[in-house]
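Re: weekly structure request thread

Next one in the queue (147 aa):
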Amino acid sequence: MTIDPAIQAAMALRMVDDTPQAVALGLRLISSSPGDAAMAVPYRADLVGDPSTGILAGGVITTLLDHVCGLAVLTAVGRDHATATLDLRIDYMRAAAPHREVIGRARCYKITRSIAFVRAVAFEDDEADPVATAQGAFALSSAGGAP
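Done, posted below.
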């Protein structure tokens, strides 16, 4: 399926600008293309899990990965579908570096009639040195129906 680039860009911006949780965390769109997406979460003191370390809370990384996976699915299937997270497995490799933005990058690698499958990574500078990796399954439905 080919998605009009203007529609795909609008979906990507809506994911970070109109989703309350994304707005609250300050998620920022880095890039998106059909089946691929990248977002970042900024370092902010109110997002730190333990003030003595300055490390972002794990839930912030989880939210980043869930959102970037969802965007990868949406850019793969188009706006005529709704999605919902069915399963999201996250493996934490290490703590995020203190006082650093974390980037999440996702790729939708398989789409069936009702489920899309995604892999993602969270990192600061180098995807080869991940903070966490994720693999997820997202339900698909027509936009008018519940996923």
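The mean pLDDT is 90. Strands lie at 28-33, 36-41, 48-50, 55-56, 81-92, 102-111, 115-123, 132-142.
Next request, please.
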